Amino acid sequence: MRRLRRTKVVATLGPASGNKEMIARLFEAGADVFRINMSHTPHDRMRELVRTIRSVEETHNRPVGILVDLQGPKLRVGGFVNGPAMLDTGATFTLDTDPTPGDATRVHLPHPEIFAGMKPGHTLLLDDGKIRLVATEASREKIVTRVEVGGKLSDRKGVSLPDTVIPFSALTPKDRSDLEAALDTGVDWIALSFIQRPEDIAEAKKIARGRAAVMAKIEKPQAVHRLEEIIDVTDAIMVARGDLGVEMPLEKVPGIQKQLTRAARKAGKPVVVATQMLESMISSPVPTRAEVSDVATAIFDGADAVMLSAESAAGQFPAEAVATMNRIAEEVENEGTYHTIMKAQHAEPEATGSDAIAAAARQIAETLDLSAVVCWTFSGSTALRVARERPHVPIVALSPNVDTGRRLSVCWGVHCIVTEDARDPGDMVERACRLAFKDGFAKAGRRVIIVAGVPLGTPGATNMLRIAFVGSDVTND
Length: 477
What we know:
CATH architecture of the largest domain: Alpha-Beta Barrel
Helix content: 25-40%
CATH class of the largest domain: Alpha Beta
CATH topology of the largest domain: TIM Barrel
Distance between the termini: 18 Å
Strand content: 15-25%
Structural class: alpha/beta
Number of strands: 21
Shape: elongated
Strand order of the largest sheet: 1-2-3-12-13-14-15-16
Number of domains: 3
Number of helices: 17
């Protein structure tokens, strides 16, 4: 099933989209990757969803990506003795280690690691940023704050710390258990929540040992400040605008989104833009004009993928939301300015043989008006380097590794076909032409450019370009 767009669509599964019929509908409507949110999914249900997705994948004979999103550390205040407490602006409010139920002057904070990292002047945001506190004193036993923006605070509301680096791992015991279960089930991507530093990604990759690729969710200011180091370590990033918009001023989020997207594109790492993209479609069959513009902006920025959360997981119109995302992407990419913008944002190739070959393939394909760039790739790195170039022509990735095909499902413009490895250069050319024709990327009489590594089957050895003619004999297969 060929998509008529380069930008990929990630759809979150949930109560509205958890059965095989709906998952198949979402795939047919345009979903390339399915996200399973472990904040709401027990292990048995996760395994069931993976089996169902693999069944849909087999039916359609196309690699489908599965992204498991770990919950990450959830920081919350304790309870209150007489129900919700009113915090008045200008008042003093204390968070401490005393488990006694709180009141309008204090509350228990059951996270000793916060006390270790807190300093006077740091901001604390409670209940999704509705209440803002500033620390005036900080010790191992209590944090005394001034209420900058007051409001009603009730039991177990969340705490966000935009200024504080907390000395703990981004992987909680629940995350470790979920990660091992997901890896054993054979998922393709693991998303890490609330990371602060590159060491958080390194820890998860050490556990994964290559069994799944790792995606860093950028949703804390600390991660934004160390973005370059994080991109060096991670396999992909997600612009998680929901929590990012809580911990940073809302007006900064659009600029940060562009910064993150361009940094990931420059590094050749996939970038997913997420949160509230078509939020109104949770309860409406059509989105707002502003939402359509928001999705279009992410696509014009060159994002590899755009993601639906509650729209497909719990909304009333999950298939319609995916179809709408699909149509927006198709229309934007057919807009005359799209390729002009892609070209203007193009980063110079890195000084490696693979990048030089990828850049040459794009230039040759566009200069000679070829039908497609066909990449033979085992690990997926060749296809990623070609996708980094954002060529005007389609990218067809041929791989003997089904795991590679599934991981590339999140990558811009890559249509992956799982096939046995080429036996020799002649077979490599013949099958590249035949499969490009079969999947509708090249007509008989047209030419494609083939990117591969010699000797064949050697990961990371991209060193060859070949222009090939799609002969009329391919129509006989």
